[in-house]
Amino acid sequence: MANIFSDIWEMEDLRKRVLFTLGMLGVYRMGIYVPAPGIDRQALSEFLNGSSQTLFGLYNMFSGGALATYSVFFLGIMPYITASIIMQLMAEMTPTLKRLKEEGRTGQNKITQYTRYLTIAIALFQSFAIAVGLESSGIGGNSVVIDPGWGFRLMTMITMTAGACFIMWLGEQMTERGVGNGASIIITCGIIAGLPSGANNLRKLVANGQINLLSAVMLLVFMFVVTYAIVYIERGQRRIPLRHAKRVMGNTVYEGQTTYLPLKVNTSGVIPPIFASSLLMFPNTITQFYQSPVLDWLSNALFPGRWLYNVVFTALIIFFAFFYTAITFNPEDVADNLKKQGGFIPRVRPGKETTAYLDWVLTRLTAGGAVYLAAVSILPMILTSQFNVPFYFGGTSLLILVGVALDTVGQIQAQLSTKHYDAMSSPAGGGRVKGRRRRLGGQGPFV
C-alpha cells in the first residue's frame, strides 16, 4: 500500500489528477453547508427524524446530508445521474440518438449537451415538487416553510437548480481532469459523510439499551461479510475465450492471437437498486402530502421491511437488471464485430451461433447478478429494520461504496501499470518489448 501511494506521488500526471479530485470534493463538501433561504431548520430537523425511510431520507443519504441542512446542494447529483441514465437508455432505443452515438466524439458531445438540458428540466421539476411538499410538511402544526407561496417556490426552484448544475459541472470536471467517474465519486462522498453519524446513532442505541452489545457486534460482522461478498462478486467475470485466425503476408506468418471476452457477473452495476428504491419510496412520501385510504394502505404495505415491499423490491431489481443489461450489451453487435475482425469462439460458428451462445451465457450471468443484487439489497434491510439500525447501513449504500472504490482503484492501477510498462519498454530504461516470431522455410524476416 505504501508503494502505491509513493508511486502515485512520483507520477506527476496521476498526482495532479488525484489532488484535483480531492480539491473538487472539498468544494462539494463546503457547499453542503451553504444554507438556502426560506426554511425553519428546527422544524425541518424534527420532520426528517420521522422520514428517514421516505424519498427525503433517500435524498438526504445521496446528497451527503444536504437535505438536513437545507443546502443549496439540496438535490445533489441525482438529477444528473437520472438524466444520464435516461439518455443512455434512449440512445439505444431512439434511432436519432442512436445515430448520434455512432458518429463518435461529435455525436457524443451532442448527447452530453442534451443530458445537461434534461438535468436542468429534472432539477426544476424536482425542486418545485419538493417546495410544494415542504410547504405542507411539519409536525404538530409547525410548518417547515417560513413564508409559503409562489415566492418561496420560485426561489427554491432557482436556488436548487443552480446548485444541481454546479454539482453537475463538478462531476464532469472530476471525470475529465481527475480520477474515476465524478458523479459516482460525489455520491460515494455523500454516503461516507453520513457514516460517522450512523455509527454514532448505533452507539447511542447500544448505550440506551435498545440494542445489546452482542447484536451490535454481530451486525458489524454481517456488514463485513456482505462487503466481502460484494467485492468478490463485483470482480467476478466469465471469460469467454476468443481466437483470431492466422494471417500470412508474403513469407511471414503472423500468429493468431488468443484473447478472451470478459463478461461481468453484475453487468448493470448499482442502477437496479437505485431505481427500485426510488419507485417504492414514492407512495410513502406522497402520503405525507395527500391523505387517501388507498394511498395509506399502499404506504403501509410498501413500507421498507414489510413482506410486500421485499417481494416488489426484489422483482423490480431483477427487472431493471435484465432491462439495463439488454440495453447496454447487444450480443448480435458483438458477434458481428468478432466476425469482421476475424475472431471466433472455439467450437462455436461465427454469426448466429455466436450470437445465440453469447445471449445464452449473458442471460445466466444476468440472472445470477440480479439475484445477488436483490440479496445484498434486501438482507441488510431486513436486519436493519429488525434492530432499528440507521439507514446508512443499507445494502444499496455498501454496493455504491464498494463498486465506486473498485472502479477508482482499478483506474489508478491501470495508470500505474502504464507507467511501469513505459519504463520497461523505453531505451533509457534498458527494456525492450519482445514479440512472438516465426520463420517460414528459413526465409523472410522475423516478426
Q: How would you describe what is shown here?
A:
The chain is mainly alpha-helical. It has two domains: 1-178, Preprotein translocase SecY subunit (Orthogonal Bundle); 183-447, SecY subunit domain (Preprotein translocase SecY subunit, Orthogonal Bundle), CATH 1.10.3370. The chain is built from 16 helices and seven strands. The strands form three sheets. Strands 6-3-7 form a three-stranded antiparallel β-sheet. A two-stranded antiparallel ribbon has the order 1-2. Strands 4-5 form a two-stranded antiparallel sheet. β4 (247-249) and β5 (252-254) form a beta hairpin. α5 crosses α6, α7 runs antiparallel to α8 (150-177) and α10 (213-234) runs antiparallel to α15 (352-387). It is globular and about 80 Å long. The protein starts with a helix and ends in a 22-residue tail after the last helix.
Question: What can be said about this structure in brief?
Answer:
The protein has 447 residues and is mainly α. The protein has helices at residues 2-10, 12-32, 41-48, 55-62, 78-93, 95-102, 105-135, 150-177, 182-207, 213-234, 271-286, 293-301, 307-328, 331-340, 352-387, 395-425, and strands at residues 138-139, 142-143, 237-244, 247-249, 252-254, 258-264, 343-344. A hairpin with a 2-residue loop joins strand 4 and strand 5 (252-254).
What is the tally of helical segments? 16
- Proportion in helices: 55-70%
Counting DSSP E segments of at least 2 residues, the number of strands comes to: 7
Overall number of domains? 2
Which class of the largest domain in CATH terms? Mainly Alpha
The profile of the biggest β sheet is:
3 strands, antiparallel
End-to-end gap: 39 Å
- Average pLDDT reading: 77
The unreliable regions are 429-447
Q: Tell me which CATH architecture of the largest domain applies here.
A: Orthogonal Bundle
- Strand content of the residues, in percent? 5-15%
Helix and strand sequence: HHHHHHHEEHHHEEEEHHHHEHH
Structural class: mainly alpha
CATH superfamily of the largest domain: SecY subunit domain
The shape, in one word, is globular
Instruction: Provide the CATH topology of the largest domain.
Output: Preprotein translocase SecY subunit
